[in-house]
Write a structure and sequence with these properties.
The structure is a single chain. The protein contains seven helices and no strands. Helix 1 crosses helix 2, helix 1 runs parallel beside helix 3 and helix 2 crosses helix 3. It starts with a helix and ends in a 6-residue tail after the last helix.
Amino acid sequence: MECDDIRKRLTAWVDGELPARQAHEIERHLDRCPKCRLSAQGQRQMVQVLNALPAMAAPAGFSRRTLRAFRMGLEPQNLIQWWQHLNFIMRGAVCGAALAGLLFGAVMGTSLAAPDTDSPITSYHALYAGTGIFP
């Protein structure tokens, strides 16, 4: 193993998460390489210091507030608030305008007339010819 490979796996080795074979290869490399050995010692010291720190308890309601903030980030609050402030007539008008836009797009996107006999029919036209809808 080379130093780059060792450095990538060093944290897992310090935490004891590697299979025995890989751990043994890293240990052999550390015996030969002072630079990697120094890095491993630093990692071990950092783990020891972090493990020596006292456990911290989360403040009361922390989970509830965090979950609420997360959910608010997922929902577009401005659109929901806008919709809720509309009265019944305005909601109907918005839905009607949306429906009119969809219908307009459907009509404009599809020609209901048969293609000219003078123009060549492509395979795309032939596909839709049996349905009576010609794009």
